[in-house]
Design a protein that fits this description.
The protein is of the alpha/beta class and 555 residues long. The chain is built from 17 helices and 27 strands. The strands form 6 sheets. Strands 2-6-5-3-4-9-8 form a 7-stranded mixed sheet, with helices on both faces. The chain has a 7-stranded antiparallel sheet with strand order 20-21-24-25-26-19-27. Helix 8 links the parallel strand 10 and strand 11. The chain binds alpha-D-glucose-1-phosphate-6-vanadate and cobalt (II) ion (CO). Belongs to the phosphohexose mutase family. This is phosphoglucomutase (alpha-D-glucose-1,6-bisphosphate-dependent). GO terms for molecular function: magnesium ion binding; phosphoglucomutase activity.
């Protein structure tokens, strides 16, 4: 195919955040905005892309199909010999990671702004996953950003728009396009991790019911195929399983605030035993029991503690990892099982070197991200099947019609063994950037004046710092990853600014406190944490500096 060289000019602000580039949809639809970033990506990757295969897909949000046409022409124009794209430009984030790994493709582009709302008024986003299926490391994203500041030519193949609807291959000169079923490789991957036959038997129990809320986002087709068609759950198991370009006007973020419909079902009369939800691009998960919420920090710890229920982990875990703000519940499991454990900065990319090096089997973030080393992204349906596997194992000897062991029972058993790390996150969304910076400066100021031993409320400071991480595999350093106070009893207060928003600033305040008093295990986290939350709000002066008397979202 002939290649057209089109002149362009750098566009400001194309710096990727925690997970790719996210902006308002209309910004992405502006002249050359998307094309500039994609060309910069290809420039950053350089000569190695020649003759390789690139994968493409996204969460189905508005502008994804148009964006695909632009990306395919740029890929062909820059020397890729083939693009593999999910039917109708669909590919969940974990599915992309599985596809790259299983088929040994060069890498993939995911069109998603994850849980951010979509549509013309919402957000669009793009990110690149590299050869082991992992989100591009900072060494690559820094390079891409450098290229966006000097990009001058777009290399686009002179070819017609392609049909993304019809599965199969087509040729354009020596360039090949293949449209594939976006579920197949992912499901094959999960089948290697879980015992589908055992899960099928468990799901068939008359005394077990579950519900999965796809929130009108990408997991609709995945959950329908896996939970309903493969595992035999009734079709009604998948709620809001028809994906829509604007997520039906919703905010596809699986938490207690935005997945309220599911929460109402799980706290209502005749609630199912098990409930779960996933986000826009299928990498996040929320796990619920009948009237019970599992914090993501606990969920990953409980999956790790019960990993022997999952065939893929039968040989034991190599190690575990969590992001810094995630509670230390996972550390306690690691100590109990005598496993290596790691604390990384926020963002999945930091887990991937550990997994590639065979040092980590299960990892998670407090932000509803859970995963394993079967792929290199967090994986919503993995978490769902992991919990199903745990429930199936715990109920193996419970006769049908007896008292089913539920999610809360698993949690109580865990806390009774390891103690409970009470955890909560307060998000203050769309705060003025200026005010957010003032809060961070105030917190930094308190840190600079608080040596070890400082008394703060009922707590004694062990240390306070701005978290810094040196990757144990390649030695790369990430600094300024969050302001934290760590107290002598292990309690923590952490502040960071979000790196995934598209406008204003989001302040995240993370609170953790450990208890091994069984009388407290069933206490509400907000109640248990009230004194330390008060301390955090006082020391940061957050209410005064932002004018917010309460957060947008509490987890
Ligand atoms: C948030 C979460 C982080 C997660 C990231 C991407 O980042 O805190 O843990 O990895 O989103 O998840 P931030 O910088 O806004 O805190 V997703 O599902 O939005 O790709
Ligand atoms: Co996501």
């Amino acid at each position: 195919t002939a290649v057209k060289e089109l002149p362009t000019q750098p566009i400001e602000g194309q710096k990727t955040g925690t997970s790719g580039l996210r902006k308002k949809t209309n910004v992405f639809m502006g002249p050359n905005y998307l094309a500039n970033w994609v060309q910069s990506l290809f420039n950053a990757l350089g000569a190695e892309i020649k003759g390789k295969t690139l994968c493409l897909g996204g969460d189905g949000r508005y502008f994804g199909k148009e964006a695909s046409q632009i990306i395919i022409k740029l890929a062909a124009g820059n020397g890729f010999s083939k693009v593999v794209v999910g039917q109708n430009a669909i590919m969940a984030t974990p599915a992309m990671s599985a596809l790259i790994r299983r088929k040994k493709h060069y890498g993939g582009i995911i069109m998603s702004a994850s849980h951010n709302p979509g549509g013309p008024e919402g957000d669009f986003g793009i990110k690149f996953n590299y050869t082991s299926g992992e989100p591009a490391p900072e060494s690559i994203t820094d390079k891409i950003y450098g290229e966006t500041q000097k990009v001058s030519t777009l290399k686009m193949a002179d070819m017609p728009d392609v049909d993304l609807n019809k599965i199969g291959s087509s040729k354009f000169g020596d360039f090949e396009l293949e449209v594939i079923d976006p579920v197949e490789d992912y499901m094959a991957q999960l089948k290697e991790v879980f015992d589908f036959e055992a899960l099928k038997k468990f799901v068939a129990r008359k005394d077990f019911k579950m519900i999965f809320d796809a929130m009108h986002a990408v997991t609709g087709p995945y959950a329908t195929r896996i939970l309903v068609q493969e595992l035999g759950a009734p079709a009604s198991t998948v709620k809001d399983g028809v994906s829509s370009p604007d997520f039906n006007g919703g905010h596809p973020d699986p938490n207690l605030t935005y997945a309220k419909e599911l929460v109402d079902i799980m706290w209502g009369a005749n609630a199912p035993t098990f409930g779960a939800a996933s986000d826009g691009d299928g990498d996040r998960n929320m796990i619920l029991g009948n009237g019970f919420f599992v914090t993501p920090s606990d969920s990953v710890a409980m999956i790790a503690a019960n990993a022997s229920c999952i065939p893929y982990f039968k040989g034991g875990l190599k190690g575990v990892a969590r992001s810094m703000p995630t509670s230390a519940a996972l550390d306690r499991v690691a100590k109990g099982l005598n496993l290596p454990y790691f604390e990384t900065p926020t963002g999945w990319k930091f887990f991937c070197n550990l997994m590639d090096a065979g040092k980590c089997s299960i990892c998670g973030e407090e932000s509803f991200g859970t995963g394993g080393d079967h792929i290199r992204e967090k994986d919503g349906l993995f978490a769902v099947l992991a919990w199903l596997s745990i429930l199936a194992a715990k109920n193996a000897n419970v006769p049908e019609g007896g008292k089913v062991v539920g999610v809360k029972d698993v949690a109580l058993e865990h806390w009774n063994k390891f103690g409970r790390n009470f955890f909560s996150r307060y998000d203050y969304e769309e705060v003025a950037t200026d005010a957010a910076n003032k809060v961070m400066a105030q917190v930094a100021d308190v840190i600079s004046k608080s040596p070890k031993g400082t008394k703060m409320g009922d707590f004694t400071l062990d240390f306070a710092d701005n978290f810094e991480y040196v990757d144990p595999i390649d030695g790369s350093k990430a600094s300024k990853q969050g302001l934290r106070f760590v107290f002598t009893d292990g309690s923590r207060i952490i502040f960071r600014l979000s790196g995934t928003g598209s406008s204003g600033a989001t302040i995240r305040m993370y609170i953790e406190q450990y208890s091994n008093d069984p009388a407290k295990y069933e206490e509400d986290a907000q109640k248990a944490l009230a004194p330390i939350i008060k301390l955090a709000l006082e020391l940061s002066q957050l209410p005064q500096l932002t004018g917010r008397d309460k957060p947008t979202v509490i987890t």
